[in-house]
UniProtKB/TrEMBL annotation:
Organism: Cryptotermes secundus
Subcellular location: Nucleus
Domain called DUF4817: residue spans: 4-60
Gene Ontology CC: nucleus
One term of GO molecular function: nucleic acid binding
Protein name: DUF4817 domain-containing protein
Amino acid sequence: MRWTSEQRAFAVEAYFSNNHSYVAVQRAFRTHFGIKPRGPVTDRKSIVLWVENFRTTGSVVKKSSGRQRTVTTPENVEAVRQSILRSPRRSARKHAVALDISNRSMRRILHAHLHFHPYKMVVSDEAHFYLSSCRVGVIGPYFFEEDNHAVTVNSQRYVIMFENFFEPALEEMHLGNVWFQQDGATAHTARASMTDLRAKFPGRLISLRGDIPWAAHSPDLTPCDFFYGDTSRQRFLNIAPQTCFS
């Protein structure tokens, strides 16, 4: 509760006139200001603070230490600018430690004074690998896009891809009885998707809820494709990009 200056002054006077008794101060406080028996009164901690302020400053109100110091001076702003230009890859936190500036002040200088903003890299786990040197037995690739923008694969889009792209290409290969394997993704194993797949591959469907259960984390049926995708991914991740465009 916020107490007025009058209430604070009365509590200090009562403290000295009642032999430094906090209980006596609370009783006198309640009586003087007409506070009900269950109403709030000042606690011992507040009385101690007011007495200390009075002894130190001659006032029951804590005085301000003066104008608040700020680190966003022109000198510090320039120091931050030079530090960023020298080491643009160093984090703002490390720059703050090097310049003996709090992290909050560092970010205020960067945003409000220097108008510097970090680049935020969006990392996606999706990757496309395509072997074009040999197309024997390879169908695809197929990209799920609408208006030249990638879209989320759902059951409807999966069925459209299967009927309009995969099935015609498979028929052109004249392979006869073919086994089909897929993972347990929701779009792959939805009711509409499974209905089409069972009709095309009766008794020859390797899938979650298929004729033969698909084992979790199992590789593709084509070892070469599986090996190349993993190897290319590792080589790509080992190359550190030098620019945001890279």
